[in-house]
Every structure is written in structure tokens, then in C-alpha cells.
Amino acid sequence: MKLPGYALLLFALTACFSKIQEVSSHGSHGWQDDRDLETTIERCDTAEAKEADIATQQLVVEKFLSSPDEVDIEANIMIPVCFYVISDDTGKNKLSNGDLQRQLDALNTAYGSSSCCNTTLSWCAPGTCSIKTGIQFAVAKVNANGVLVPGATVRDVSTSGACVFHVVNNVWAYLDSGDEMEMKTALKKGDAKTLDVYFTDLRALGFTFYPWAVTPGSIKDGVVVKASSIPGGTNTRYNEGDTLVHEVGHWLGLSHTFSGGCDISDGIADTPPQGNAYGGCSPATRPDTCPGGGPDPIFNFMDYSLDACMYEFTLGQALAMRACYTYFRRGRWENDIIDLQFGEQSDPFNLIPRERQVFRYMIQGNTTCTISANEGNADMYMNLLSPPSWSSADLCVKSNLGSAESCSTGAFSANEFVQEPTKENETGLFRLLIRTLAGLLRRAFADVEDPAPVPSQSPTQSPVQQWTEPVLLYVGVLAVGSTPVQNASVLCK
Ligand SMILES: *[C@@H]1O[C@H](CO)[C@@H](O)[C@H](O)[C@H]1NC(C)=O
Ligand SMILES: *[C@@H]1O[C@H](CO)[C@@H](O)[C@H](O)[C@H]1NC(C)=O
Ligand SMILES: *[C@@H]1O[C@H](CO)[C@@H](O)[C@H](O)[C@H]1NC(C)=O
Ligand SMILES: *[C@@H]1O[C@H](CO)[C@@H](O)[C@H](O)[C@H]1NC(C)=O
Ligand SMILES: [Zn+2]
């Protein structure tokens, strides 16, 4: 089913996107005392989203919406999960498989259509429920050697082969930043598509990294939560498992609903703007910190409310999470190749971090390609005959392009270009051409970059000529860094 209304949402998001300006400081969360607020617990230690983070998330959504095959909310995204419980030798943080299963179930409830407010609380009208995000979670599978079986899942946390590990370590059981990488390096099993969850003890309730801020699947990628925050845990008022729900929201690219303040909020069109975090659960005195958009989203999983209040994701948030999972975690980096004429400027394009765009030209003679962009950093790769390999093996690599950079193919000897082909074997001929051109062009570049260039021709060779046959030139642009490349354009002539 295609979602109608998404076009409108896109319009709203785009409007919002262009409105991004300075994000005001929101380090202090503006606690007020007249409500049932929690002031002693730090709810979340994930870095507050900055302007560039919100812009990245919005750009991913835009791209997702313009690829209609992906906007299929009926197709569940099933995310494999690995659990690591780190207790100490006194038994602190110890969780049973039953505890972990309840946490997994709470996660699935929150992201499914059965996430409703708790009817035992006076303010909850029965039947007040959230939307279905189309995202669900299942226990990942490891083989007999404890190695992840990519994409495979098992029935529950107690099934043999479940990616569930109970570890005793007195240092990691009180995690501080110095131990984080050591712990993750020792324990992590998951790949880019897998959610690794570490249950331990730490100052905040939990933390993670946006999917553009770390390389998905790298050691650092994953979610850390306080073991006592699981459903039925000992962390009073934060023990319905919503800490993990919230951190997974970040892991899937969501900001706090108040991250950007009243001006840009969280960059999601259908969450009301919110000036600062709400730390309680007293809906009768629900705040309204920003003009327009209605009262603050205190029921949203991405606010700072007590677990009792949290039960909601919006359609816009679901879309953003699906888009981020598709791009960053399923690795949809490579766009279709765009064919351009020699001398033709490309349409302006935007790339999210790690996204790639390849342009193809038919050229005949030394060609120079120039890229320009308003914002962000990109690397440019050039190759003849085949698309770039995105490595130093390519013919021209320019790293960290600033405002404008260029790369040239150089020239080569037509004599060497038409060396005797191997039989009537086209593959062989093709390979030979690549080898020959690659060798020549690499030499040409070495000459260009060498401060004391050697003469370009040896006396025994014929002089360098323009080549006689047209050749395919591929120009690849790769967004690097953690912010999008915006309004980029490529021109080869
Ligand atoms: C609903 O609220 C009651 C009372 O606070 C609490 O005991 C119960 O655990 C809550 N239910 C869920 C599913 O969190
Ligand atoms: C190719 O063109 C560029 C830009 O005009 C020039 O700097 C370079 O020297 C040329 N290379 C050769 C080998 O002609
Ligand atoms: C063509 O050449 C390639 C590379 O030299 C070789 O692997 C392949 O077997 C050849 N094919 C035929 C049909 O000769
Ligand atoms: C995008 O770049 C082009 C030049 O490449 C420039 O003319 C245009 O004004 C830029 N657009 C924005 C919105 O910055
Ligand atoms: Zn958070």
C-alpha cells in the first residue's frame, strides 16, 4: 500500500528543511517544579541533535519518498537484535532470559499498533493508541562459534543459537566512557542491520549514536541502556522498557522532540514543536512551550517523560526511521548512474553521508571534471570504461572536496591504446583496455602531481596524441563526513 498524504508530508518537511537556521542552545532542559518532574535521573546521554543531524534525517526522508518502491508501510522491516547483559560478581544488572524477552516484547509493542496509553492511569482514555511503525524486532542468530548469521533470527531469547550473552565483568558493569569501546570490542556480534543492545549500569538511562554519526556495523554502533530500565526493573518510574524504545529511536535516526527548540523542533512535520524537554507525567498540566502545533508531545517516546506517559510515535517519525534504516543500515548508497553530455552541467544534487552518485560521459580526449557544492564534503573518483571502485585504485581520487575541485583524465598515446587484442574475446579486450588506460592515466596523474615531473615521453616512443576512439568516463561522488552534501553539481569538459 502506498501512503497517500506522504506527498503533503514531504512538502511540509521540505518547507521545514528550508527554514533551518541557528539551533539555539538547549543543553539545560528547563525543568519546572510545578509538575511531577523527575530531576535526579539523566534520561538520555545521546548527543543532542544539531542542525546538521536534523537536516540529514530530513534529506533521507526526502530521498526515501522519491523512491516510491520503498514507501510500502505494509512491508515490515524486521530488525535482528543481539542482547548482552553485563553483570558484576555480586549479581548487579543480572537479567534472566525472561526479563530480556519482556524487554523485546515491549519494544515490539511500542513499534507495533498495540502501543496504547495505560488504562490504569486516570488520564488515559481506553483505546488511545499509537500508529504502527512497520518496524519489528526479533532475536538475531549466531552459529556454533558465536558468529552472527546475517539476517537470520530465532524464535525467542531462549532458543539455541539466540544472539544473547550473559557476561560477568566488574568493570563494564559500571560503564563509563573509558570502558565503552573495550566492552563493545569484546562483545559485539551484530552487523550494520543488527541492533546490538548492552544492558549495564551507567549514569544516564541510556545512550546511542545516530546512524550517520558512526559507521553502521562498526564497533561503536549500538545501544547501551541501564539494566534496571527493563519492564519490571528496579528503576522506579523508568521501568516499563521505554528507555530502550527511546534509544532505538535515536539509533534509527530520530531526534528528541525538543532538539531544535520551537523553530525546527525535531524536523518531523507531525510532532508538535517543543521548546524544551518534559520530564514528568502529569497530562492534566501538559505544557505548551511553543506557539502553534498544539500542546507538547509528552506522550511521545522521543520526549523525556516518565515511562508511564510514553506510548506514541507519529507517522512522520515512522517514516524517518524506515528511511534511515533503508539508507544507512541496508546500505542503499548507490544511486542509478546518470548519463550526461560532455560539457553539460549536472542538475543540483544532495547526498546524505556515505551516499554515492555516479555520472557517465562519452569523452574523446583529455577531460577535466569539476565539482562544486554549497555544503558538506565529498570525495571524487574517476575511472575510464568502468564505474569507480571507490578506492585508490581508481584513476583519479580527490579527497575532501571543499567548495570546488577538479580532476583530469590526462591524455595518452593512441598507439598504446590499440595494443593487439586477445583473439575475438570481448572480455579479454575490455580488460586489456582497462589495464592499458589505467596504467597510462595513472602515469599521467603521477606526472601532474610530481613536483619534479619526468618527461612525459621517452625518446623511443611516438609522441602523445589525442586518442581516436570515444571512451566512457565514470565520475563518482561520495559524501564523506557526517553532514549532507548540498546543492552539489558536476561538470566535465
Ligand atoms: C500501567 O500502570 C500501572 C500502574 O502504574 C503499572 O503497574 C503497570 O505496570 C502499567 N502497565 C504497563 C504495561 O506498563
Ligand atoms: C588535461 O587538462 C587539464 C586541464 O585543462 C590540464 O591541466 C592537464 O595538463 C591536461 N593533461 C594532459 C596530459 O594534457
Ligand atoms: C576471455 O578472456 C578472459 C580473460 O582473459 C577469460 O577469462 C575468458 O575465459 C575468455 N573467454 C573466452 C570465451 O575465450
Ligand atoms: C546551487 O548551486 C548553483 C550553482 O551550482 C547556484 O546557482 C544556486 O544558487 C545554488 N542554490 C542554492 C539554493 O544555494
Ligand atoms: Zn534521547
From TrEMBL:
A Pfam family annotated for this UniProt entry: Peptidase_M43
Keywords from the UniProt entry: Disulfide bond, Hydrolase, Metal-binding, Metalloprotease, Protease, Signal, Zinc
Superkingdom, natural source: Eukaryota
GO MF, one annotated term: metal ion binding
EC id: 3.4.24.79
Enzyme class: hydrolase
Signal peptide: 1-25
Family: Belongs to the peptidase M43B family.
Protein name, per record: Pappalysin-1
Species of provenance: Fistulifera solaris
